[in-house]
Amino acid sequence: MQTAKITVAMRAPQFSCDPKWSRRRALIERSARFFSEALRIDASLTIKIEAHSSKVGKGTHGHAQAPVDGVCRIRVLRDLPASRLLHVIAHEMVHAKQFQTGDLTIVRGVQTYRGVRQDQLAWDERGHEEQAERMAAQLVDAIVASMGRAETTLARI
Ligand SMILES: [Zn+2]
């Protein structure tokens, strides 16, 4: 299976001289690729991740848009604590998978998951969010295990 193409764009380039910048970029790209392979997101989808600074970004830690012409755009805040950032990326990648399978659709603002309208439900009653949270926890456990002890000191990444 060919896996999804993934690009990462770091926003707010005025901070790009910071060595933390390239480590963060590498962490985002590496983890997104790991999660894409684990979720078996195939090459029919291109995933474009935009990593914003919380200093200029606003609102939620992450967001995945319904794909347009095969491109799924994901926004994340890049300067979250590393373990939280991994969870957010994993969560949004699960949404990408839900979009790819057609389980999750958004048509004219109406969000449907497996035939059930979601956007009028409370957040914790939304089936696609419940699945994203549950699978994100498993995916983070898996990437931490795969990186090995030396690198699992997440605070260092
Ligand atoms: Zn979500």
Description of the molecule:
This protein is α/β, with parallel strands linked by helices and 157 residues long. It has one domain: Collagenase (Catalytic Domain) (3-Layer(aba) Sandwich), CATH 3.40.390. Helix content is 42%, strand content 21%. The chain is built from 3 helices and 7 strands; from the N terminus they run βαβββαβββα. Strands 1-2-4-3 form a 4-stranded mixed sheet, with helices on one face. A 3-stranded antiparallel sheet has the order 5-6-7. A hairpin with a 2-residue loop joins strand 5 and strand 6. The longest helix is centred in the last third of the chain and has 25 residues. It starts with a strand and ends in a 6-residue tail after the last helix. The structure holds zinc ion (ZN). Zinc ion (ZN) binds next to helix 2 and helix 3.
Question: Key terms for this structure?
Answer:
3 helices; Collagenase (Catalytic Domain); three-stranded antiparallel sheet; binds zinc ion; single chain; 7 strands; four-stranded mixed sheet; alpha/beta
Largest sheet: 4 strands, mixed
Cα distance spanning the termini: 30 Å
CATH topology: Collagenase (Catalytic Domain)
Per DSSP E runs of 2 or more residues, the count of β-strands stands at 7
| Fraction in helix | 40-55%
- The helix-strand sequence is EHEEEHEEEH
Judged by helices, strands and strand pairing, the structural class is: alpha/beta
Number of domains: 1
Ions, cofactors and other ligands present here are:
zinc ion
Residues in β-strands, percent: 15-25%
CATH architecture: 3-Layer(aba) Sandwich
Number of helices: 3
What's the overall geometry?
Answer: globular
Q: Gyration radius, to the nearest Å?
A: 15 Å
- List the strand order in the largest sheet: 1-2-4-3
Task: Determine the mean pLDDT.
Answer: 89
Low-confidence regions: none
What is the CATH C level class, in words? Answer: Alpha Beta
